[in-house]
Structure formats: C-alpha cells, structure tokens
Write a structure and sequence with these properties.
This protein has a single domain (about 5-260), classed as P-loop containing nucleotide triphosphate hydrolases (Rossmann fold). The protein has helices at about 15-30, 45-50, 95-110, 125-135, 145-165, 185-195, 210-220, 230-260; strands at about 5, 35-40, 55, 80, 115-120, 135-145, 170-180, 200-210. With about 260 residues, the chain is α/β, with parallel strands linked by helices.
Length: about 260
C-alpha cells in the first residue's frame, strides 16, 4: 500500500497547504509516484493550486459513502480529491459513522496510488481526527514564531493521543521549518528552542521566505518549474526538506515492517 502522509498543524498560516501541494508535486516529478491529494480544508487552497489535475471525487464524499473503485491511477501524475465549503458540515456529523467510511475510502486510495497526501484544516476537529486515524505519517509545518511553536506541542499531543487510542501505525515523521527569515534574531532564537525541545522531530533543513514559491503555485506549477533564477534557490531548499522527510517516512516504514515480521 502507498504511504498516507498528512500535513497538519492546529494553527493556520504556517504554509501547510503550500507544502502539501509541493510535496505531492515532488513525489510525482522526482520520485515518479502516482499521487492522490485529498483536500480536507474548506478553504480549498490546495485544490486551487492543483486545479489542473483531474478530480476523481469530492472530499466531502469520502465521509458520506463507500465510493468503491474510485480511479485507475496513471504513473507520475497527481489526482485530486478537492475540498469545498461543504466540508464544514462534516464537523456536525456523527464521528462513529463518518470516520470509518473515510478511513475505508483512504485505504482504498492507498492501494491504488503510490502515495496519498492529505491537507487538513488548521484546527482539531472531526476532519483532522479522521485524517490522523487513516494516516501513516504526519508532517507538521511550522513558522518560527512564538504562537506557531506553541501549536507544535498541541499537535504532538494530538498525534500521540490518536496513535495510542486509534491508530498505532501513525508516526510524526517531521516538523518542517517554513518561512524562515535568516535576518531575524527572534526566529533564530526560536529555531534553537525548537531544536532543543523537539530535536528528534525537527528536520535539519529549512525553507526561507521566498516570493517565488507562492508565485509558482499561483501559476499552477511547482517552484522548480518556474523559469526564474530566484526560483532555483527556493527549489533547492524545498527539495532538500522533502528528501529528508521522505527518508524519515521510508525509515519508519522499514522499522514497522521489521517489527511485523519479528
């Protein structure tokens, strides 16, 4: 089965959707994976960035019924399960009814695609919980500001709580340092505090504030396809972060496989 990777943070504005989209593009372009992106955010920013991709179902449908055979993936492409404002209504549903349906549909997609990437809403609720119960690995983007760092502790508690009670396969793969300002002494101090308190989870690479990243996504392409010299440096940073993230996911899979065989 393919990896189910969740991009989540219980605080908004940290670049969660941006990195989810770029990671999906990196998997398709560099890893040659067939990828399915599920957008659970009612704002649907990931869906807008991936609007050129084929939509195989609506995200709200994953909570409503067993969709059966959803799609036949094409290698090295991205399929989209777009979000919409209707997702807000899911929060009012009965968890014991809709979460098993969601998990079943995600597991079927994981059988059909090499990777499934889930972009979650920026708050703990039914959709976030459903994603964690259905997923394998969590990538937690963070902006190096005080409130964002406080949100990391909340996200860790949520991930470990879901792992303990509902999904023993779930792992926090990495904390991703995003929108770093190398000239900010405050951010440098925050990065040191983060490394001290969450050392085992923080990836030793960072993505700086780069105007070429939102510019590329607005054009519907990943930053490494943007024909600008400024995009090259951004591309190097983004790809390095994803290489390290994927190494952690692969290592976790190998460890779980070894434990199962033992």
């Amino acid at each position: 089965m393919g990896n189910v990777v969740i991009f989540g943070n219980q605080k908004g504005g940290v670049g969660k959707s941006t990195l989810a989209v770029l990671y999906a593009c990196w998997l398709a372009d560099v890893q040659r994976h067939s990828v399915c992106v599920i957008d659970l955010d009612a704002q649907a920013n990931s869906s807008k960035s991936l609007s050129r991709c084929s939509a195989i179902a609506q995200a709200v449908e994953l909570f409503g019924r067993d969709l059966g055979a959803i799609a036949s993936p094409v290698a090295q492409t991205i399929a989209l399960v777009p979000g919409s404002r209707k997702l807000a209504d899911v929060e009012l549903a009965k968890a014991d009814l809709v979460i098993p349906l969601f998990r079943s549909n995600v597991m079927r997609l994981a059988q059909d695609f090499d990777s499934v990437v889930i972009d979650t809403p920026p708050a703990l609720g039914l959709r976030m919980s459903a994603a964690l119960i259905a997923g394998d690995a969590v990538a937690c983007p963070i902006e190096l500001e005080e409130y964002s760092i406080d949100g990391v502790a909340d996200m860790l508690r949520t991930v470990f709580g879901v792992r303990r009670r509902y999904n023993p396969q779930l792992r926090l793969a990495a904390i991703l340092l995003n929108r770093f300002n190398p000239h900010s002494l405050r951010q440098k101090a925050a990065m040191q505090d983060l490394a001290l308190n969450f050392r085992e989870f923080v990836i030793p690479a960072r993505i700086s504030i780069r105007s070429s990243i939102p510019e590329a996504l607005a054009a519907g392409v990943p930053v490494w396809r943007l024909p600008k010299s400024a995009a090259r440096e951004a591309s190097l940073e983004v790809m390095r972060v994803f290489e390290l993230l994927q190494q952690r996911i692969d290592a976790s899979n190998a460890s779980l496989s070894a434990g199962t065989q033992a």
